[in-house]
Amino acid sequence: MTTSSTTATVHLVRHGEVHNPDRVLYGRLNGFGLSELGQRMAEDLADWFAGRARAAGRTPVVLSASPLQRAQETAEPISRALGLTIDTDARVLEAENHFEGLSDVKAELKNPKHWPFMVNPFRPSWGEPYQDQVKRMAAAVHDLRDRALAAGGPGSEAIVVSHQLPIWVTRLSAEDRPLWHDPRQRQCSLTSVTSLHFERGQDRPRIEYQEPNKALLKDALNLPGA
């Protein structure tokens, strides 16, 4: 929830579970929509946001989403519940990844043709540099913050549906932590909400992390990097 010192909040939402029986690292590929469980997650998440709005006496004023199908489908119930139009923003798109489209990345790593892409895990050399992801995400977040303030004044909120890796590196950057990390250690579950609370007199936002669908996660397929 917002506090009296909060000027605006931007909620970074990860999409719901994807229908992906072949366990493909789908990245930016088209045709990967939500599974039945993912659709339930999206509906429950919309109810969660609506409940927060009723309790606070005010509704988020801006809703944005990545152009990818899974993000748009996650945003749709939120749009209906809060009466907001979905603004599509390519800046919050999933990260590029050399291994996109593969279903067994661990086995593929044994193939010498992939080795040149593994030389620098700190960048990382197999995909879009972490710094580039942070730059585009930060630009989108700051625009959303400013739009929320313009539309609703101090204490206003914006919601953006994005993807695990861009959300996680954005959080690492906001907390002034190294961007290199173990993908298995990301705190960014399906339909999780990473809230950036921008407060007066603070250079960095305060981070709040919540899992509205925690009870459903045990039944979900959750691939690191997907």
TrEMBL record:
InterPro entries: His_Pase_superF_clade-1, His_PPase_superfam, PGM_Phosphatase. One of its GO terms (cellular component) is cytoplasm. It comes from Micrococcus terreus. Gene3D superfamilies: Phosphoglycerate mutase-like (3.40.50.1240). GO terms for molecular function: phosphatase activity. PANTHER family: BROAD-SPECIFICITY PHOSPHATASE YOR283W-RELATED, PHOSPHOGLYCERATE MUTASE. This is Broad specificity phosphatase PhoE.
